[in-house]
Amino acid sequence: MGILIMARKINSNGLKLIQEFEGLRLTAYADIGGIPTIGWGNTNSVTKTDVAKKKTITKVEAERLLKADVSTFEKTVDSLTKVPLNDNQFAALVSFSFNVGSAAFGKSTLLKLLNASDYKGAAAQFARWNKVNTKTVAGLTRRRAAERALFETVPAKNLLDEAPAKVCK
Asked: Which domains does the chain have, with CATH numbers?
């Protein structure tokens, strides 16, 4: 009998973080880096032509795109990380890779430090990823601070798991 391994999923904290910082835009637009974007930061189903023609989608379609995009980055984080992660660490890394892309995450010092079990060093790396074309972007600075804060927050269920057992007589 085989062992069923469930794929990790982002928690609600991470999903809210992505939605808050990406913002919902139902009309195609070019983001700050000039990349065609629609919905909650979706870049792979929209073109420059869509931006020029002001393509629109429904909120339901935006939710479908977000779910598919998040699934991609859940797999990215799951496959590239080699150390144990709590739910908030996993969620923060999904948000981070969602924003910077799988290739950049895979080459990052953040990931190298993390996979060397240097969690504090990895957390400090979030702040370095706040630029677009060498210019510091306030929104990215805030996002990276939020991702780091989430990464460094022990989930409540983990706190309960780590609590010493109560001895009853």
From this structure: 12-152 (1.10.530.40)
Say which residues have a Cβ less than 8 Å from residue 33's Cβ, sequence separation at least 6: 132, 133
Catalytic residues: 22
Task: Tell me the C-alpha distance between 133 and 140, whole Å.
Answer: 13
Residues 6-49: pLDDT tens digits? Answer: 689 999 999 999 999 999 999 999 999 999 999 999 999 999 99
pTM: 0.88
Which pLDDT tens digit goes with each residue over 123-140? Answer: 999 999 999 989 999 999
